[in-house]
Amino acid sequence: MPDAEPEPAEGRAARSGKRSVGLGTALALMLVAAVVTGSVVGLVAANTGGSNAVVNSLREPNAEPAPVPEGGSVVEVADQVLPTVVSIQVATRTAAGEGSGSIISSDGYVLTNHHVIAGAEQGGVIQVTMNDGTTHPAEFVASDPATDIAVIRIQDVSDLPTIQFGDSSELRVGQQVVAVGSPLGLSSTVTTGIVSAMNRPVRASDGGGESSLIDAIQTDAAINPGNSGGPLVDMNGNLIGMNSVIASLSSGDQAGSIGLGFAIPSNFAKRVADQLITTGEASQPMLGVTVARRGDVDGALIAGVEEGGPGDQAGLAPGDVVTRLNDRNIDSSDALIAATRSHDFGETVTLTVTQPDSGQTRQVEVTLTTE
């Protein structure tokens, strides 16, 4: 992609394998084979009122940040969120898989992970199980492997309950959160924990050669294979993340939770989902540079600069090392890619740049590409 700031680096990273997170842990996309026995379905399905007007969460403003919760509120959150979460089954000629998703429009659009429904792109059949136990066919809408975000649509439905998007930029470390989904085929599963960290650049492979990079929310809420695509919500029941990746001490993708889960921030997921529904594809804000994947550099080493692009206009050059973006430390090429994607199209960001040969440091203002 000639105008993509770090896309060539992502291609190289995909070939180099998964990025480890602390103590040699392996990242695993949480796709679970749909051969689990005793798969359960649960609960509710329809809004009251009987209106046929379409409600679309992507068109609604973000909800207000959640206040400090009172004891026992997880029960209220579960009651509110469970009706908006579905279990997704995908069957192809050679395999079957299962994940989770959040209903984002009353006429059937569902937000989930690309790796959950990837088989549908090659003719796989999608079936969705609602919380009242009913099943419906669903169609593939669009997906973006680079960000692991996808949208499907449940067929022949109306007046579905929808989840409300929260503002992930307002999250605080230590804030209580709830994860909802179908781990190991056990639908309507609710777990709770806290936001453990923010702005974790996490790269993972689906095992088929595709690599995704997310600027993740880290949580200790128990999430396992099958939770993928399901919501991470605040104590108001607002979607503030989409559970996508787990870290494990095992090398196998089916290892269980060790309290290191990662979710795609809701603000980012909302933007990409809107693009996928509107245009069928997703694009991201870019610096107009490529970065080298180097473990011996403390920062993001610029390998190339697109002529006439934002980085070129701001004076960036090959050999520069980016160590900060605004007030955020940048310690790797993935960190720069993830941080850039988290900003808006056309936004101006300030980079702290070091020239390794001279050791001189300067600040550079760069206006990101427009949509």
TrEMBL record:
Endpoints of the signal sequence: none
Domain PDZ as annotated: residue spans: 276-357
Family annotation (SMART domains): PDZ
Segments traversing the membrane: 21-46
Lineage start: Bacteria, Bacillati, Actinomycetota, Actinomycetes, Mycobacteriales
Organism (species): Corynebacterium halotolerans YIM 70093 = DSM 44683
Similarity remark: Belongs to the peptidase S1C family.
Keywords: Hydrolase, Membrane, Protease, Serine protease, Stress response, Transmembrane, Transmembrane helix
Entry superkingdom: Bacteria
GO molecular function, one term: serine-type endopeptidase activity
Xref: PANTHER family: PEPTIDASE S12, PROTEASE DO-LIKE 8, CHLOROPLASTIC
SUPFAM superfamilies the record matches: PDZ domain-like, Trypsin-like serine proteases
Name recorded for this polypeptide: Serine protease, heat shock protein
Entries under PROSITE patterns matching the protein: PDZ (PS50106)
A biological process from GO: proteolysis
